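HUMAN: Now follow token order:
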Amino acid sequence: MKKKAVIVVALILIGGGAGAYFMGYLPFGGAPAEAASAEHGEVELDSHGNPVQSSAEAQYVPINPPFVVNFTHLGSLRFLQISLEVMYEDKQILERVEHSMPAIRNELILLLSDQSFEKLSSLEGKEELRGEMLAAINSRVQDQDEEQAHDLVHGEVFITNFVMQ
């Protein structure tokens, strides 16, 4: 009985290993990765031998410390604390973000302190603010020397903490 159990477990492990090999190490379509790279020129492959998509992986950079700004609403002083992260696929843009952080923080502080309580209280207002913050960051990180400087820099701003009092 023990011998049969050992054989069954061994067969399951071998079958599972073979299935994982063919599912994980061959690209979709059944052609080996070497043949795919030979057909289309040089192709970057992941750890399983599958072609890597041409778009870069998104990377996130927190903007620290969190922003704390004040503004007036109906005669009383209000506070906003907001934490942000930016996401870009291009490492050079992330380096520009880190290099330009003092200027970016200045732009964002001015932008945040100029918001109305009503706008910040609604989902639509927060989404509009995200777009404005992204435009402010992009204006600082866009390389004016590049030939394609008129193209928009693609990225995202995420609000990771939002407290309004």
Confidence is low (pLDDT under 50) at residues 25-41. The chain has two domains: 2-39, 59-164. The helical segments are 2-25, 33-39, 91-99, 101-113, 117-121, 123-141. The beta strands are 59-73, 76-88, 155-164.
